[in-house]
Amino acid sequence: MSFISELSQSKEYLSFRSSVPLKVIVVDSDDKKGWKVFDCGPKTIKCPLVCLPPVSGSADIYFKQALSLSAKGIRVISVEAPVYWNVRDWCEGFRKLLDHLCLDKVHIFGASLGGYLAQKFAEYSYLNSRVASLILCNTFNDTSIFNSHESAALYWLLPALVLKRLIVGNFKPDKVDFNILEAAEFMAEKLECLSQIELASRLTLNCLKGYVEAHKLRDIPVTIIDVFDEYALSSAVREELYKCYPEAKIANLKSGGNFPYLSRCQEVNLYIQIHLRQFDGNDLSPSNIPLLNRC
Questions:
Q1: CA distance 277 to 271
Q2: Angstrom distance (rounded) from CA 278 to CA 221
Q3: Cβ–Cβ under 8 Å, residues 223 and 275
Q4: Biggest alpha carbon distance in the chain?
Q5: What is the pTM of this model?
Q6: 247: nearest Cα among 214, 199, 271
Q7: Residues of 22-52 as b/e, b for ≥16 C-beta within 10 angstroms?
Q8: Would you write out the chain's pLDDT as a tens digit for each of its 295 residues?
Q9: What are phi and psi of 192, to 5 degrees?
Q10: How far is CA 279 from CA 1, 47, 106, 169, in A?
């Protein structure tokens, strides 16, 4: 690794890594393919919040959500998938992971690629829905925005350095903001930890031709969290997502860059709590603490 970010040396991150064990769960026939899982909060909860990372992220990038929300009684599970080369196989693997964890339904927070895969899993399982709700952050619903369908078939051939350069160009913010810079450095550090095959598979999932059949998700409550400052996706992509979910609640942040769950964690955590409050008092609640005690 070429550098160590300040955020990875913070007391909060070190506390998370020392108090929440990393589990590797194998659900496929290949015992080398394991899902990396951080499970934080009351294990009695059977409809937790599951967090899915973007292309460059690892399971621990949601440590600020895990620590803060679990302290309020919410079970937060952050996961990182093994190598999959198509969305259907990813969805199959995620379903098996939920089965392994004995979770019938989950709320999903997904950022960028994680948000796209969250939508695709909701679509995949819509006949026997495994998704209680979606929180989509800086994400998309159609991979045509990347104009890379033909390149997707070649990512497995490219060296890791080339793959990392394809991603890291979106990290540097135009405006100087300490928290945004700190988040970008942390994500760059996490990117350095990924192997060539991990990067290639994630970029393949990100760019393979596909779109979300949003009509199959019409009964799922959705909150969309977006930032108004510069980030990797265009405003046109944001507007297209809004059109797909006309009933969604929109949570806009004035700023936050590509990784607002790190750079604006307090605001994002508040929006997550507001979204989840609609499930208080029923079987889909991700918390075992009454609303009045979570304010």
A1: 10
A2: 9
A3: yes
A4: 54
A5: 0.92
A6: 214
A7: eeeeebbeeeeebbbbbbbbeeebbbbbbbb
A8: 467 899 999 999 999 999 999 999 999 988 888 999 999 999 999 999 999 999 999 999 999 999 999 999 999 999 999 999 999 999 999 999 999 999 999 999 999 999 999 999 999 999 999 999 999 999 999 998 876 666 777 887 788 888 888 777 665 655 678 999 999 999 999 999 899 999 999 999 999 999 999 999 999 999 999 998 877 677 888 889 999 999 999 999 999 999 999 999 999 999 999 999 999 989 999 998 764 444 4
A9: -65, -20
A10: 42, 10, 12, 39
Q: What is the DSSP letter of 142?
A: B
Alpha-carbon distance of 63 to 67, in angstroms, equals 6
Residue type, position 183, single letter: A
Q: Which residues pair with 37 in a beta bridge?
A: 23, 79
CA 181 to chain centre: 20
Say which residues have a Cβ less than 8 Å from residue 270's Cβ, sequence separation at least 6. Answer: none
Angle made by CA atoms 235, 77, 87, in degrees to the nearest 5: 55
